[in-house]
Amino acid sequence: LRSPRFRALLTAAAAKERSLGAVVGPADGGDLGQDADLSSLPEPPSQRPAAGTILHVALTSVSPAVAGILIECCYVDLPRSPLSPLEPRLRELRAAAAEFGLTRLEALCRLVLKSAVAAGASAIGAHGEAGATGSDGGDDQDEEEDEGRGEEAGRLARLVATDTLGPDLALGLLDTRWHDVVLVAQGGERFPAHRAIVCARSPFLRMLLLGGSWASGAGGSGVGGAGIGATEDQDSGALPGEVVEVALPDTAHAVWRLLVHCYTGYLQPPSSAADPSLDLVTADRYGCERMRATAAAMVPVGPNSAIRALELADALGAAVLRERALACLVEAAAAASTRHARARSRSTAAPSASASSSARMAEFGPTGTMAAAVARIRSQP
Fold first, then answer.
1. CA 161, CA 178: separation in Å to the nearest integer?
2. pTM (2 decimals)?
3. Tens of pLDDT along 195-214?
4. Closest Cα to residue 198, out of 278, 297, 287?
5. DSSP letter string, 94-105
6. Mutual orientation of helices 103-126 and 136-161 as an angle, nearest 10°?
7. Is 155 left (phi over 0), alpha (psi -120 to 50) or beta?
8. In 279-332, at which residue ranges do the beta strands (DSSP E only) sit?
9. Tens digits of per-residue pLDDT, 251-284?
């Protein structure tokens, strides 16, 4: 999903494994090197390796340290350890990043190298060793070169700052050649996915597909209920490459939005026709905390929906949503108190209006004010 070169190498390794009928790896001397002629291999009937097969690809043209950084950047956007211009393999890493199509890593390497060159040039100029010509033409040329270097550095900085992980992984929703799990929604609609991605996002799906245990999120509700599980009698230890089907009790719309978040980390605002609380329920069900926080912020809270939002927050343990709902109720209480005070000030002229207003305020609690009712709700655990 992240590297065209890795994708080609793995596809070729799967083709060779199928053509030989054996696992490609060190055991049989059949490592597929990075410099292998990929076009010479026969096209397999399917690009998927046989279930249980672990493909081995030898990266012979790069050092182990550079290979490790390349693999790391297939899982994260940038290396966790900062790159130093003094790193002896920085140029090798830049060339390897370009070869494997990791554009953000390549831009970072080039930016670090350029910053080191610029710092060296500045140091030379500060000591009067730049060989200044003293002519106006030389000064203009230096200014143009500095401007060109600045524009190139700005372009590289923008490339480094551009998120590529989410968009690259989003392509996995459309590319099903390497999928190893199928999520089946209500109505039978099927969604191919990749275990490594959905298990990293959802503790419940990780428990279901890989085994182990899972404690529900802050809401304490967890997934619960019936209707979730493998469609066949399969254990959690599925073989690599084996496609497992999981039946879910959610609608196709809910499963799709869950998958989009799993692959991209984002959650688009729901359409005006959709119930905005459904994303929060889905996120709580599958233990996706980041999706849960985003969905809770999207639940509308207003005078007509604050009570329902408060009930939803209490049911799912959404503390931020609960505070938003309570704040809305307090604001409504203040507005109601203001209206009541104005009505009481006009009671001598319109006694019937004062009585009506007092009756309405009595609906908010034994004390006759909505603020007191909100205070009682806040005091509850």
1. 29
2. 0.63
3. 989 999 999 899 888 875 54
4. 287
5. HHHHHHTT-HHH
6. 150
7. alpha
8. none
9. 999 999 999 999 988 888 887 767 878 999 999 9
